[in-house]
Structure formats: structure tokens, C-alpha cells
Amino acid sequence: MKRLMLKTLLALAAVATLGTAAAQEVKERSFKFALQNPKGHPLELGANKFAELMVAKSGGKFKVNVFAGGALGGDAQNVSALQGGTIEFVQLNSGILASQVKDFEVYDFPFMFASAREADAVVDGPFGQKLHAKLADKGIIGLAYVELGFRNLTNSKKPITTVEDIAGLKLRVIPNAINIDWVKALGANPTPLAFPEVYAGLEQKAIDGQENPLSVILANKFFEVQKHLAVTNHQYNPQSIIFSKKIWDALSEPERKIVRDAAVEAAAYQRKVNRDKSADDLQELKKAGMQVTELSPTEQAKLRAKLQPVIDKHGAAVAATVAELQAELAKLRK
């Protein structure tokens, strides 16, 4: 009885929001939503918020099943399944989409964004929307950007206090060219691995370390198999919520509006949750036994200088997009 009453209330709310004619075009649908981080991570909380909003905005007609922790495979598998229409939603690092549209590589450039607010202005503005629009030709609809945040370096071998300390470490990287190149530029050995394989690789000593935001290090319990954490903030990762164009093309316009509105609202929620939590994550990692170091301003400058040739190399292939992004950043920094 309670479930029936709830469904009725949701349906009435949907009619009030969409209008009677539009509400009639919203059909009963079930969707799968895949992401790599585990339950409790801010990205998973954002995905669950999206699922709630889809139910509310559709009057109970849309149901989203969230598959966290790489339950449906790694990012590459998820994107392929999304293009084929067997997974409807995927949430992943925006830079990984460079395998579909090369311009997305700019999101993986080290030290591109000086702050999270700066990143928000870029991805939510014309630049970010233009990049998402380019995915349509690849069978992908870009809906909104959430965030993984600023990345930091961990390892099981030694504390990192200078740039030279990074040399020789075998580090897991996101499987794309720019990440492989920047690790090489520091004298370390890059090992591309799908995210679900990272913990086992660290535990079995197949790799010495990895780099991720604090929230990822904590949620995935990398502190169990990593002793040292260097707060480097060397890269900021926006993440994209993407949808299968094959399924999108079968939706009515009111249904598409529900999907887009829910994604945008969930993205704002996720970013706030992630940022509110980040201050506590470092303390939790220290409590868990990680030894934390920070690079001095001099070492940070050396790190930037070492990585600049990598940015120049990869920027040449997407020069127009780099120029557009830099122009946006210049306006924001005035």
C-alpha cells in the first residue's frame, strides 16, 4: 500500500513538473549505471543521487541500477557496452574519452587547473559542453561532469620529498598516452592497469605505487598496501556522466529532459559532497598509518618544469582545443 501511494505521489509530481502531455510520453524504463569506485565513495554517492532524481523526475517510471566498484568491468569495457546499448550510463575520468575524441586529452594535462572552482567554470561552460557534444558521433551522449578531484602519489617503497625520489618507481597509470609519458618524464616506470586490478597489483608488489585523489585512496583501502603518500595535486580529474546514444535516440524529448536535468543536479550534489569530505580524508589516511609528505614550492616548480615537455608534446596534436582552453582559463584568472 505504501509503495502504491509513493508511486502515485511521484506520478502526480511528474505531471506537475512536465505537464500532462509530456508525462504521457514517459515510459517505464530500467537503466544500468556503471562506475569504478566502490560504495561510499563520493562518486558512488553521486550516482545514487542521480538514481533517486531519475525516479522522482519520472514519477517513478525510471529505475537506475547502480553497479559500483567495476562490477561491470573496466572503463574500456563499459564504454564499449554503452556504445552497444547494453549499459545505458557510465561514469569515468573524462580524459579516458580521448580514445574516442582526442581533444579529451586536455583533461589529463598535469597542472592544467589551479583550483576546483576554475575547473567547474571550464567544464560547465561552453568549452566542456562542446567537448561532450563531440562524443555523439561515437555513439555517446555527454550529460554532465562530476569530479574525482586532484591526484596524489602513493607508493610502498619510500617517502617522496623531491622530484628525484619518484624515479625508478613502478607506477600504475590510467591507460592512455599522456599519463604514460608524464610518468616516464619523471624517470618512473608506467604500468597501465584497469582500475579494478590496482589493489591486487599493489598487494602482490607487481607495482610499487599509484596516483589518485585522496578520496579514492581512502575508499579503496590502498592504505592497506601503501605506506607513503605524497600530496602533489599534480592533476585534476573531471569525470563525465555519459549515456548510450543508441538508447538516447529511442527516448522521447520529455524523457531526455529528465535524464539531462537529473545528471546536472546530481553533478552539483556530487562535487559538493566530494569537496566537503576531502579535508577529512587526509586525516583518515594518516590515522590508517600512511606517512604523508608534501613537496616544497621549489620541488613543485621542478615537477611542473619536468612535465611541461609532455604537455607541449600532446598539446601539439590538439592545438586548437588547447588554445581554446587556455583562453578560457586566462579569462577566469583576470
CATH topology tier name of the largest domain: D-Maltodextrin-Binding Protein, domain 2
Strand content: 15-25%
Q: What is the CATH C level class of the largest domain, in words? A: Alpha Beta
- Uncertain segments: none
Report the C-alpha radius of gyration, rounded: 21 Å
Report the helical percentage: 40-55%
What does this structure look like?
The chain has 334 residues and is of the alpha/beta class. It folds into two domains: 2-102 and 111-149 and 238-278, Bacterial extracellular solute-binding protein, family 7 (D-Maltodextrin-Binding Protein, domain 2), CATH 3.40.190.170; 152-235 and 280-333, Bacterial extracellular solute-binding protein, family 7 (D-Maltodextrin-Binding Protein, domain 2), CATH 3.40.190.170. The chain has 13 helices and eleven strands. The protein has helices at 2-18, 20-24, 42-57, 75-84, 116-124, 126-133, 177-185, 198-203, 214-219, 245-248, 253-287, 297-317, 319-333; strands spanning 29-34, 62-67, 89-93, 140-150, 152-155, 170-173, 189-192, 209-212, 228-231, 236-244, 291-294. Helix 3 packs antiparallel against helix 11 (253-287) and helix 7 (177-185) runs antiparallel to helix 12. The longest helix has 35 residues, at 253-287.
Which helices and strands occur, and which strands form pairs?
Blueprint (H helix, E strand, L loop, with lengths): L1 H17 L1 H5 L4 E6 L7 H16 L4 E6 L7 H10 L4 E5 L22 H9 L1 H8 L6 E11 L1 E4 L14 E4 L3 H9 L3 E4 L5 H6 L5 E4 L1 H6 L8 E4 L4 E9 H4 L4 H35 L3 E4 L2 H21 L1 H15 L1
Helix pairs in contact: 3-11, 7-12
